[in-house]
Every structure is written in structure tokens, then in C-alpha cells.
Amino acid sequence: MNQTEFAVTRFDNRNGVTSWRVTGWLHGVRIRKNFKSKEEAAAEKAVLEIKAEQDASGLRSATTRLTNAQIREAESVYERLTTRPRSLGFYVDFALTNYREPALDKSLPDAIKAYLSIRQADDQLGQLSHRQFTSFRCELRALETVFRGKSVSELTSVQLTEFFRRGLASKKAFNNRRGLVGTFLKFCFLQDWIATNPIEKVPHFRGIGHRRGSAPTLRAYPLERFPIMPVGFRRQRLAFRKRFDLSHDILRHTFISMFVAKFRSMGEAALQAGNSESIIRKHYLDLKTKDEAEAFFAILPQAASKCSLSASKIIPLPTEGLRNEHPLKAG
Predict the structure, then answer these.
(1) Phi/psi class of residue 297: alpha, beta or left (left: φ > 0; alpha: ψ in -120 to 50)?
(2) What domains, with CATH codes, occur in the chain?
(3) Would you tell me how many other CB atoms lie within 10 Å of the CB of residue 260?
(4) 174: burial class by Cβ within 10 Å (0-12, 13-18, 19+)?
(5) Cys-Cys with 8: which of 41, 90, 163, 177 at CB 3.0–4.6 Å?
(6) Helix (H), strand (E) counts: the chain
(7) Alpha-carbon dihedral 37, 38, 43, 44, rounded to 10 degrees
(8) Residues 6 or more apart in contact with residue 152 via CB below 8 angstroms
């Protein structure tokens, strides 16, 4: 019998003593207990009813040192492991062996400041080019701005992937950004500011090719004739890039490609650009003809003869005829 209803009845013993009896069935086992008072019998009846209800719903009563919150958490973990082949103990042992708590929850601004101080020292000692140090500084400042108020340990691979894609970055620009921030995060990992390095799950593009014979060109200002020092050049350059949808390394690509085409010297171009020949050949060189190079270096501003050149003024770019035309195709 699977009856789980219990009753309390009066029972007269042969010796004339009255008892109160609890009767019923629990999972096929007959229950019959005698108590001296009706109150004791009623309490036992309530205990048996609770036990029957717990058994029916899969609940169990047990003596434990866990708090109610810990019991609920343990039950939640076991529910998550129902489709897993291993025991809870296995996963706990794995986490305890492989996971390291950060020794210090470092804020992102403090971590960046500590890292840049080291890179700046390398720059001053000549162990790092100033251009590379500037790249670190600019990219990490952008990182700090986008993730303002966060600690280093809060950065995720998904967030970083979107950060590297900002501004519709090319695959090469994405890789460059990933390399700069990845070096910083490796430093943070070695300092125990992060338990794992999220950069490891950020994609890295490989086999990035370059088109031949398609190097875009910009207007040239020969410095031997116009030794100008523009004021606010960086701001103007960024505005110009945004207006005409140019890549961040357009000037470098153009100079190297046209220099090699005009002077036919990869080694000299490497010295001028501060790169090795292999890097130039891999990333910056788009083959151009000598005639194209001559035409490029012959470009002069249309209003050059009308402008007053000085060390504090930038020669204004001609705007006539450029409203609906890409600047690299004009002139």
C-alpha cells in the first residue's frame, strides 16, 4: 500500500491505561505508534505528513551545517550538472587546481599607468621606438576611455573584440590593436591582476594580402621647398581622414610605395621609414611604376603661389572641385 494519510485515534490498553495511536502507511510500510498524550501523537502525525510530502516531491530531510543559502546554491549547481558526465567534486577539484584569484583587483587606469611608465622608460633607454611607445599610449588611452570605471579583471574577450573593430577597422588595424592591448594584458597577467588573459580568445586575422598597383596617393608638400610646421596637424589629419574615409596609415603606405617606385631602393625606404625590409615588403609596399611616382612627387597645392608660408601656418588644402570627388583622384 502507498497510502500516506495518517490518523490519530484513542486506544485503551489492557492494563486500563489510555494511549493515543498514530496509524497509516508510508511507502508500503505500516506505521503504528502509541503516545501518552494526544498532543504528542498529533506532533508525530505532522512529522510523518511532512516526510511523506518531501518523499513525493523528491525532497529529503537531512542534518547539515550548511546555511539555507548554501543549500539552495548546492541544489542549483547539481541541477546544472544533470547533463554532465562528471561529479560535482570533479569540477570543484578542476577549478581549485586551474583557477587563480587575482591577487589585486587593479583598476584599468592604474594598470595602464603602471604599464606605460615601463614602456616610457624603455623609450628613453632606446629599447623601444618612440613611435611604438606612442602607439601603446594612444591605444591604451582609448581602452581606458571606452571601459571607464572598470577594473582589468572585468575585461572580456567579447568586449575587446568589439573594441578592436571600432571605426570599421581593417583586418590589419584590428591585428595591430590586438597586439598592443594583448601585450598590456600579458603584463597584467604576470602581475596577478587578472586570473586569465582574455586576449587569447580574441580572433587574429592571418594571411592578409595587399593589392598590387593600387596604392592611393595624397597631395605632397616637398619639405625642402616648404619647411612648414603645421599647428594642430593631428586634429586636422583626423578630420581629413574622416571626411574622405581614409585609413590611419594612408600616409605611410603612400610614402613607402612611391619612394621605392622613384628611387628603386627597398633598403633606403626601410631606413627612411624606420622599418625592416621584410616588414615593408609584407605590410606597406604596393608596387607602383616610376612614372606614377614622378607624377606623385610632382603634385603641388593649387594655391601654393598665393599662400603665405610660415612656420606657424599650415597651407590650406584647395577645396574647389573636391566637394563630390575623392581627394586622391583629383588634380
Answers:
(1) alpha
(2) 1-61 (3.30.160), 65-99 (no CATH), 108-201 (1.10.150.130), 233-329 (no CATH)
(3) 23
(4) buried
(5) 41
(6) 12, 3
(7) 80
(8) 106, 107, 108, 111, 185, 188, 193, 194
Residue 195 cell numbers, joined: 586570473
Task: Indicate if the alpha-carbon torsion angle 109, 114, 117, 119 is positive or negative.
Answer: negative
Cell (9 digits) for 103: 591577487
d(CA 21, CA 270) in angstroms, rounded, equals 102
Report pLDDT for 320: 41
Measured in whole angstroms, the distance separating CA 230 from the mean position of its chain's CA atoms is 37
How many alpha carbons fall within 13 Å on the CB side of residue 83? 1
**Cell 568586449 belongs to which residue?**
159
pLDDT tens series, the chain, 331 aa: 455 678 999 888 888 888 999 998 887 788 888 898 889 988 888 888 888 877 776 666 667 888 888 888 888 888 888 888 888 889 888 877 766 666 678 999 999 999 999 999 998 988 888 888 999 999 999 999 999 999 998 999 999 999 999 988 888 899 999 999 999 999 999 998 988 899 999 999 886 655 444 333 336 555 566 565 667 777 887 888 888 888 777 777 788 888 888 887 777 777 777 777 777 777 666 778 888 888 888 877 665 544 444 433 444 444 443 333 344 433 3
pTM of the model: 0.44
Amino acid at the residue 205: F
Tell me the C-alpha distance between 60 and 82, whole Å. 18
Can you read off the three cell numbers belonging to residue 152?
A: 582589468
pLDDT at 326: 40
Residue 192 near residue 102, CB atoms below 8 Å: yes
How is residue 154 written as a grid cell?
A: 572585468
Residue 187 host element (H or E):
helix 171-190
